[in-house]
Design goal:
166 residues; alpha/beta; 5 helices
């Protein structure tokens, strides 16, 4: 999948999943990396029943100047689906020429721990965004417990290096 230029200088990433999948952590890392790159970042979250496995939706938008944390239907540059049903439910948010990122391939690469699937997905997303891999790895190291830095970083790298259609 080729990297897509941001729409009007703003990139909109829509995350959809369920509670316990690490959706909030992944979106916080995207916001952190974009913010540290000097971009304006806006983020919104909806996770009312997430502790009971309910729907979790977050939106991260970044660019030189972002006016709203929300994105119109059909305008997201990337839809990140942590769970297939949630991905289908929110498919209308994705722009016609937008990209979808999901967990496909996670079983093929030998994740060190299935609990790191969110980092595999984050790696797949990060590979198409304009930030250096080390920025992502530094943000992961700051956000996860010290004993989980290595497996999370490894899962991220597997996602970063994963190529569709292998």
């Amino acid at each position: 999948m080729a990297k897509r230029p941001a729409r009007n200088g703003t990139t909109s990433v829509f995350f959809a999943g369920i509670g316990g999948q690490g959706v909030l952590l992944a979106s916080e890392i995207v916001a952190q990396v974009a913010g540290r790159a000097g971009l304006d970042v806006k983020k919104s979250e909806v996770h009312g029943m997430s502790q009971r496995g309910g729907s979790v939706v977050t939106i991260v938008r970044f660019g030189r100047k972002v006016h709203s944390p929300l994105v119109r239907q059909g305008a997201a540059d990337v839809l990140v689906a942590f769970e297939p049903t949630e991905g289908r439910r929110h498919a209308a948010m994705l722009a016609r020429d937008g990209a979808r990122v999901d967990s496909s391939g996670a079983l093929d690469v030998g994740l060190p721990d299935p609990r790191t699937a969110n980092m595999f997905i984050l790696g797949k997303l990060a590979a198409r965004l304009p930030f250096a891999r080390q920025r992502w790895l530094d943000a992961i190291a700051e956000r996860v417990p010290p004993r989980t830095i290595e497996p999370n970083s490894r899962a991220f790298t597997l996602g970063w290096e994963y190529r569709e259609g292998k």
